[in-house]
């Protein structure tokens, strides 16, 4: 078994058993990055010197018995909207092209303390706005399963890096599906935790009420191990929720007997690719065969999730992104006449078209005379969507659904029609509106050989249920390595 | 298309958002915004009367800090990313006429 | 010209006396070098998040209770969006929809009589940074030390009709807030700032006229002048048949005129929405009671108590309680040395004289109650006479010296050696036969001259009572 084909948990075990050194693992990842980046462009920034220096320090702590956790010595990547002290953090935007944060995001800090080695920062849709990683100012990322296809987005860099073995696992962020959808497209496992579970401190905000950091990994066990490390109550994030327990690994049990699984019938109608549909329903059958009670049901208000989401997320984004103005950090336009001209030129040159589109929409829906009709309406809709899920979770432990209506589209096909692209978020977006946890697990490939993911959604704070269901499923349907990426 | 977005609206939103769009971008923005608003108008089919707008998912209240100074002088770090600095301050175009 | 009435409402911003900023644990101390009291939160670094300072809420509640407001049990923060470099996030965290206090009032008294001024609301928000205009380079420099300093904004109803009422209202607010310890409320230093909303209408008219908002008012005098100036400007417009435009104007106190602050880049559309990074503030009955129970004695109560407890004139009570700092000093001093009347005299006469001389406010008094009490003790013990005491007090006022040590060091103490004094008095009697003769001839005033001569010979370090006694004995 080569180093790179191991999961994070397997690797750290080998490191602790002194079969592999941290440096060997890091060097293997760096070599893979060196080879893979020409094809995939998963990273915005790779930090070989930093990674090797960390490897040495971490090795010592492991040898001294200070670091014993499952991420000790594991080379990982971090999405480029999560601040890393001293390491450039750009949000894949020209406007932050040179920003070096003076502090670590809480989640990044947790990773470092657990002994993970940060290899670099992964590419993404600019400010996490997009579903393909094509809106990055630093070039699109390509899908390692087929480089003519997108990896999905916005955490496309993290997901493709895991698929391409350019890291053992990564952090992504999910505002409307940005972990789950690219995980599905790249054949990896990605989890979006319950809102408030992982601190947002240091996550460069897109839609503050929806954003969550989560793990992207090869399998469910790795996701649970990473979530154990990054989750926690943080007094620097007022929306952080103090949970009773942050132990997720104990949920990894191959047992779904009696588990009630609901499948929203409305998710399987028009617009869903037949191959995706078949794979997802087959996944449900696997769980059923293992003793779960699977049932179709009607989840209401499905069609209202996307419009409500785009109002809320764009409104928050228009305000969150106001701080990028050429005064305190990042890009400032070369020539300008006066303050307001400097603002306008800096922002117009610094932001890409998709970001501008959402800032314009968000500014409009909050502007005088429209706030009630759009913003408050969307917040009311959100409340009703939450109620729909509350009702569903009275009956079910887990809701099973596709992660995306199709497999990964070809590069260049999506951006021409923004609304069409937004509609692709149909299965993921309502989960963010309701603050729920969701996981995407690979469940097959289509005729073109592109991965398909099945999404399992839990009630708030019930990550353990979806982890158990996903783990049980993966026992029957193990993670398949990306054919092109294995060394 | 039900929503017609005027040039004035695009101009006005540009002032609010501090974005200066090229003529092509303006045209695209008009079209995109109208299309999105038409789509968003679907929300009007949903009866939300009597429903409280929900900004926070969880009823978490009263998250406070105590009034204790913890931060020291980190000016150097704070200014390190600034495009223009003078006398320990962020330098910007003149703000008064 | 028709008869016009001025309608005035005030928006008063008060910087709260917390140790740290509203959303981060940076110091609020004045006087640091630019940007030395900053962190990722108060400079709007990407990824930073605000966490509310509990003390800000408690100060706001205290002010609300003292101004008879309803305290909002379920409050929220909202974002006010506008671009300006002193505002690092390009939005200000404030409260629009659910401010912490509403529907209050304070009572004022002017020459026109007593009146109640309504308080529409009080909300919490963050202050902006400071912009310094660099003359040499034609640029501005941003200092975020003040960015995130907690403010409350007290919005009055349009209940005031004259500059007198405005000043009385501001004085009232200032005293309430100072007494609560929620702010020092110094206009000059900007810890209290007032924006004046003003309109005029014909006397008897029901509808309000169009109002303007005036900013940049940093003294009571400037406020009074601005009200007169803006009133005149609006009346002139109306008389000329022109319309008053609803706008924000900047008062130039040197030119005594207000100027429109409009700009085409200023849409005045703040796109308020609930701050997603902060959670609601829920005030329970218990919490409110706790804050209520900690409310200190406010001025009106203090005045009533002074009348009951101390034998000092009403006028003095008014002056003493006219500044929380002065009242504290008064009470702390009498706690040490008693003698309320004497303490009051030192504050009313010498202290007020020196303040006036140095163009200072009672808040600027920097001597300690211990030293004033010690001075009064020296007089009581006959260690120094009143003339010396006044001299020593000037030094206490300026440098807060310990009078006991100072008198010792400078040798200002009275000569307590009765033998030495008797010798001097005998010499004075011998050297001034004419005065002695006058005294015996019934000119009792002549004794004053002899006392003066004795004092002169003693270099002022003698007790006049003792001299009088000795003279009476020896003559």
UniProtKB/TrEMBL annotation, chain A:
Swiss-Prot/TrEMBL keywords: ATP-binding, Ligase, Nucleotide-binding, Protein biosynthesis
Known catalytic reactions: L-glutamyl-tRNA(Gln) + L-glutamine + ATP + H2O = L-glutaminyl-tRNA(Gln) + L-glutamate + ADP + phosphate + H(+)
EC number: 6.3.5.7
GO biological process: translation
Gene3D superfamilies named among the record's database cross-references: Amidase signature (AS) domain
Protein name: Glutamyl-tRNA(Gln) amidotransferase subunit A
GO cellular component, one term: glutamyl-tRNA(Gln) amidotransferase complex
Name of encoding gene: gatA
NCBIfam families: gatA (TIGR00132)
Functional description taken from the UniProt entry: Allows the formation of correctly charged Gln-tRNA(Gln) through the transamidation of misacylated Glu-tRNA(Gln) in organisms which lack glutaminyl-tRNA synthetase. The reaction takes place in the presence of glutamine and ATP through an activated gamma-phospho-Glu-tRNA(Gln).
SUPFAM superfamilies found in the cross-reference section: Amidase signature (AS) enzymes (SSF75304)
Enzyme class: ligase
Span of domain Amidase: 24-467
Family as reported in the entry's similarity comment: Belongs to the amidase family. GatA subfamily.
Active site: 79 (charge relay system), 154 (charge relay system), 178 (acyl-ester intermediate)
Self-association state and partner proteins as the record states: Heterotrimer of A, B and C subunits.
InterPro entries per UniProt: Amidase, Amidase_dom, AS_sf, GatA
Example GO molecular function: ATP binding
From TrEMBL, chain B:
Protein name according to UniProt: Aspartyl/glutamyl-tRNA(Asn/Gln) amidotransferase subunit C
Family to which this protein belongs: Belongs to the GatC family.
Record NCBIfam families: gatC
EC number, as in UniProt: 6.3.5.-
InterPro entries: Asp/Glu-ADT_sf_sub_c (IPR036113), GatC (IPR003837)
Subunit structure: Heterotrimer of A, B and C subunits.
Top-level EC class as recorded in UniProt: ligase
One GO BP annotation of this record: glutaminyl-tRNAGln biosynthesis via transamidation
Source organism: Hominifimenecus microfluidus
Known role: Allows the formation of correctly charged Asn-tRNA(Asn) or Gln-tRNA(Gln) through the transamidation of misacylated Asp-tRNA(Asn) or Glu-tRNA(Gln) in organisms which lack either or both of asparaginyl-tRNA or glutaminyl-tRNA synthetases. The reaction takes place in the presence of glutamine and ATP through an activated phospho-Asp-tRNA(Asn) or phospho-Glu-tRNA(Gln).
Keywords linked to the UniProt accession: ATP-binding, Ligase, Nucleotide-binding, Protein biosynthesis
Catalytic reactions of this protein: L-aspartyl-tRNA(Asn) + L-glutamine + ATP + H2O = L-asparaginyl-tRNA(Asn) + L-glutamate + ADP + phosphate + 2 H(+); L-glutamyl-tRNA(Gln) + L-glutamine + ATP + H2O = L-glutaminyl-tRNA(Gln) + L-glutamate + ADP + phosphate + H(+)
GO terms for MF: ATP binding; glutaminyl-tRNA synthase (glutamine-hydrolyzing) activity
Automatic annotation (TrEMBL), chain C:
Keyword Protein biosynthesis attributed: yes
InterPro entries assigned: Asn/Gln-tRNA_amidoTrfase_suB/E, Asn/Gln-tRNA_Trfase_suB/E_cat, Asn/Gln_amidotransferase, Asn/Gln_tRNA_amidoTrase-B-like, GatB, GatB_C_1, GatB_Yqey_C_2, Gln-tRNA_amidoTrfase_suB_CS
Domain of life per record: Bacteria
Keyword terms: ATP-binding, Ligase, Nucleotide-binding, Protein biosynthesis
Enzyme class, spelled out: ligase
One Pfam short name: GatB_N
Catalytic activity field: L-glutamyl-tRNA(Gln) + L-glutamine + ATP + H2O = L-glutaminyl-tRNA(Gln) + L-glutamate + ADP + phosphate + H(+); L-aspartyl-tRNA(Asn) + L-glutamine + ATP + H2O = L-asparaginyl-tRNA(Asn) + L-glutamate + ADP + phosphate + 2 H(+)
Residues in Asn/Gln amidotransferase domain copies: 328-475
GO MF annotations in UniProt: ATP binding; glutaminyl-tRNA synthase (glutamine-hydrolyzing) activity
SUPFAM superfamilies named among the record's database cross-references: GatB/YqeY motif, Glutamine synthetase/guanido kinase
EC code(s) of this entry: 6.3.5.-
Transmembrane segments: none
Gene Ontology BP terms: glutaminyl-tRNAGln biosynthesis via transamidation; translation
Biological role: Allows the formation of correctly charged Asn-tRNA(Asn) or Gln-tRNA(Gln) through the transamidation of misacylated Asp-tRNA(Asn) or Glu-tRNA(Gln) in organisms which lack either or both of asparaginyl-tRNA or glutaminyl-tRNA synthetases. The reaction takes place in the presence of glutamine and ATP through an activated phospho-Asp-tRNA(Asn) or phospho-Glu-tRNA(Gln).
Subunit composition and interactions: Heterotrimer of A, B and C subunits.
Protein family according to the UniProt entry: Belongs to the GatB/GatE family. GatB subfamily.
Protein name: Aspartyl/glutamyl-tRNA(Asn/Gln) amidotransferase subunit B
């Amino acid at each position: 078994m080569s180093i790179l084909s191991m999961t994070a948990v397997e690797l750290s075990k080998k490191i602790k058993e002194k079969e592999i050194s941290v440096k060997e693992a890091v060097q293997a990842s760096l070599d893979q990055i060196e080879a893979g980046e020409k094809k995939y462009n998963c990273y915005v920034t790779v930090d070989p010197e930093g990674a090797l220096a960390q490897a040495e320090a971490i090795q010592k702590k492991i040898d001294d018995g200070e670091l014993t956790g499952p991420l000790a010595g594991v080379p990982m990547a971090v999405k480029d909207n999560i601040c890393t002290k001293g390491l450039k953090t750009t949000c894949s935007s020209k406007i932050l092209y040179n920003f070096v944060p003076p502090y670590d995001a809480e989640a990044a800090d947790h990773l470092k303390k657990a002994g993970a080695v940060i290899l670099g920062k992964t590419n993404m849709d600019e400010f996490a706005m997009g579903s393909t990683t094509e809106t990055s100012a630093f070039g699109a990322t390509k899908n390692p399963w087929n480089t003519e296809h997108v990896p999905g987005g916005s955490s496309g860099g993290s997901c493709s890096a895991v698929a391409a073995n350019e890291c053992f696992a990564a952090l992504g962020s999910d505002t409307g599906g940005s972990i789950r959808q690219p995980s599905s497209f790249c054949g990896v496992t990605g989890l979006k935790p319950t809102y408030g579970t992982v601190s947002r401190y240091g996550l460069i905000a897109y839609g503050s009420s929806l954003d969550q950091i989560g793990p992207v990994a090869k399998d469910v066990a790795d996701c649970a191990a990473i979530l154990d490390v990054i989750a926690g109550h943080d007094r620097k994030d007022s929306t952080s929720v103090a949970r009773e327990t942050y132990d997720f690994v104990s949920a990894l049990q191959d047992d779904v007997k009696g588990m009630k699984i609901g499948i929203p019938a409305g998710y399987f109608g028009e617009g869903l690719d037949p191959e995706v549909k078949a794979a997802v329903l087959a996944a449900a059958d696997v769980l059923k065969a293992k003793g779960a009670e699977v049932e179709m049901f009607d989840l209401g208000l499905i069609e209202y999730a996307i419009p409500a989401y785009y109002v809320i997320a764009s409104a928050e984004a228009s305000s969150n992104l106001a701080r990028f103005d050429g005064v305190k950090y990042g890009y400032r336009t070369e020539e300008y006449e006066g303050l307001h001209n400097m603002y306008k030129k800096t922002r117009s040159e610094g932001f890409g078209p998709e970001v501008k589109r959402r800032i314009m929409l968000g500014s409009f829906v909050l502007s005088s005379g429209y706030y009630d009709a759009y913003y408050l309406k969307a917040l009311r809709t959100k409340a009703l969507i939450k109620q729909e899920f509350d009702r569903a979770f009275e009956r079910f432990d887990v809701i099973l659904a596709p992660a995306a209506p199709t497999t990964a589209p070809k590069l260049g096909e999506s951006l021409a029609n923004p609304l069409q692209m937004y509609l692709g978020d149909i299965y993921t977006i309502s989960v963010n509106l309701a603050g729920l946890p969701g996981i995407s697990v690979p469940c097959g490939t289509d005729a073109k050989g592109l991965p398909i993911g099945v999404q399992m959604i839990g009630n708030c704070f019930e990550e353990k249920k979806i982890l158990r269901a996903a783990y049980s499923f993966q026992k029957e349907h193990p993670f398949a390595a990306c054919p092109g990426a294995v060394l | 298309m039900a929503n017609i977005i005027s040039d004035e609206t695009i101009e006005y939103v540009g002032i609010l958002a501090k974005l200066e769009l090229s003529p092509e971008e303006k045209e695209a923005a008009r079209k995109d915004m109208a299309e999105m608003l038409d789509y968003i108008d679907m929300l009007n089919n949903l009866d939300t009367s009597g429903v409280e707008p929900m900004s926070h998912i969880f009823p978490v209240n009263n998250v406070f800090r105590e009034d204790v100074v913890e931060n020291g002088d980190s000016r150097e770090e704070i200014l390190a990313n600034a495009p223009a600095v003078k006398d320990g301050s962020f330098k910007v175009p003149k703000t008064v006429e | 010209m028709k008869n016009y009435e001025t309608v005035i409402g005030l928006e008063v911003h008060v910087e709260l006396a917390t140790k740290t900023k509203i959303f981060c644990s940076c110091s609020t101390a004045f006087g640091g070098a630019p940007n030395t009291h900053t962190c990722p939160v108060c400079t709007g670094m990407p990824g930073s998040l605000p966490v509310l300072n509990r003390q800000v809420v408690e100060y706001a509640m205290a002010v609300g209770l003292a101004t008879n407001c309803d305290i909002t049990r379920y409050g929220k923060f909202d974002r006010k969006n506008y671009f300006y470099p002193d505002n690092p996030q390009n939005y200000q965290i404030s409260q629009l929809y659910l401010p912490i206090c509403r529907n209050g009032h304070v009572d004022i008294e002017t020459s026109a009589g007593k009146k109640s001024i309504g308080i529409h609301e009080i909300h919490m928000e963050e202050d902006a940074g400071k912009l310094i205009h660099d003359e040499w380079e034609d640029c501005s420099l941003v200092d975020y030390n003040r960015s995130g300093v907690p403010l409350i904004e007290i919005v009055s109803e349009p209940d005031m009709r004259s500059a007198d009422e405005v000043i009385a209202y501001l004085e009232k607010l200032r005293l309430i807030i100072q007494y609560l310890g929620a702010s020092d409320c110094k206009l000059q230093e900007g810890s209290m700032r007032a924006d004046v909303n003003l309109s005029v209408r014909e006397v008897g008219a029901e509808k309000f006229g169009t109002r303007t908002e005036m900013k940049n008012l940093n003294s009571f005098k400037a406020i009074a002048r601005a009200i007169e100036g803006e009133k005149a400007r609006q009346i002139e417009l109306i008389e000329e048949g022109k319309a008053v435009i609803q706008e924000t104007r900047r008062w130039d106190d040197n030119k005594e005129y207000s100027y429109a602050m409009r700009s085409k880049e200023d849409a005045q559309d703040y796109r308020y929405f609930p701050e997603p990074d902060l959670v609601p503030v829920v005030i329970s009955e218990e919490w409110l009671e706790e804050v209520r129970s900690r409310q200190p004695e406010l001025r009106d109560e203090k005045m009533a108590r002074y009348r009951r407890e101390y034998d000092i004139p009403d006028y003095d009570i008014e002056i003493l309680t006219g500044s929380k700092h002065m009242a504290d000093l008064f009470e702390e001093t009498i706690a040490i040395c008693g003698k309320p009347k004497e303490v009051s005299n030192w504050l009313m006469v010498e202290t007020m004289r020196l303040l006036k001389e140095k163009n200072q406010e009672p808040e600027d008094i920097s001597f300690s109650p211990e030293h004033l009490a010690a001075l009064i003790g020296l007089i009581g013990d006959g260690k120094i006479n009143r003339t010396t005491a006044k001299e020593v007090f000037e030094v206490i006022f300026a440098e807060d010296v310990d009078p006991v040590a100072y008198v010792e060091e400078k040798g200002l103490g009275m000569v307590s050696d009765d033998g030495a004094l008797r010798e001097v008095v005998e010499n004075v009697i011998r050297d001034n036969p004419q005065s002695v003769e006058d005294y015996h001839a019934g000119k009792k005033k002549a004794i004053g001259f002899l006392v003066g001569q004795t004092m002169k010979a003693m270099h002022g370090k003698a007790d006049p009572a003792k001299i009088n006694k000795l003279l009476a004995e020896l003559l």
